[in-house]
């Protein structure tokens, strides 16, 4: 009997030694567990939540944007993670529905134990602001709402591109500086959502300040297939320019109907109207359309494209098969990861926020305007470029500028 117990004891000790030598599973600071590997992650895994619109009202631009975010996390994982940590993006389609976004947010926070979130829409981002602040989770939205610049209400929200209001101000400044005859007259076309309405009052205020006349406003739904009545109403005011706050689908509808009606107004879209996805649905009605460019087109010869090419080639894919919104998602994820790199403690939202606030004039290789965050300012930039559709292609014709 004594020999049996001795044998059992030896077996237990041997198993324990083998388990210890293998490394087992390494615990996160958040209590999760992830297998460590020689490619990174020996300190654990940092999880990031992702709210994606792939099938909802803004899925036309949301799907390639989400693809870019996911691609960057795959790329950084292939490089061994960050500072000994494995990074994992836990993302899901919420179809542009605010209640679904709130439900997923709770899942990311409570079940997945994420340290930060990559968000999407204006309505859901603004609805989540108080929870994000209370939970101390850095939140990078694809919304560039001016409201998110208020650090008292949004201390954990960060803007990675010029706000919609700053975009509109820059466009109005460009109109003022380049218009030749008298006071320029401008119409505003937008959708009846938090995103659509976000820059409207700020645009009207700034136009009045610099001597530009806002003569009309028209609401066009994000899923609209006809905008004839709105454009006929706008035409009565004879605006020189019309600023569009829409995504590709509604923008194409507006441009096609304007061409059909013979309207000569110069249409200028803010950033979500921009991109290659507009061109096949707008056709030749897109010719001459001007739009805000916050992020580079894949066909631009820029230093920042090198790592994207490297990643895509490793997947057997080509850069020319991607569009500008893919680049936009990639860059957003890249900026967040830069904050994680700079954080003293990248396993907590507070730590990542402090890391982000160390980012000073981050050079993105031309993929976007350089970004700076400080404890007093989470608006990364106010800079945009402008592009014009010529011969079926967006051609950038300005350097980065503000208002």
Automatic annotation (TrEMBL):
Domain Leucine-binding protein stretches: 45-392
Pfam families reported in the protein's UniProt record: Peripla_BP_6
Signal sequence interval, chain numbering: 1-20
Gene3D superfamilies registered for this protein in UniProt: 3.40.50.2300
SUPFAM superfamilies, alphabetized: Periplasmic binding protein-like I
Keyword Metal-binding part of the UniProt annotation: no
Keywords from the UniProt entry: Signal
InterPro entries: Leu-bd (IPR028081), Peripla_BP_I (IPR028082)
Superkingdom of source: Bacteria
Similarity field: Belongs to the leucine-binding protein family.
Protein name: Amino acid/amide ABC transporter substrate-binding protein (HAAT family)
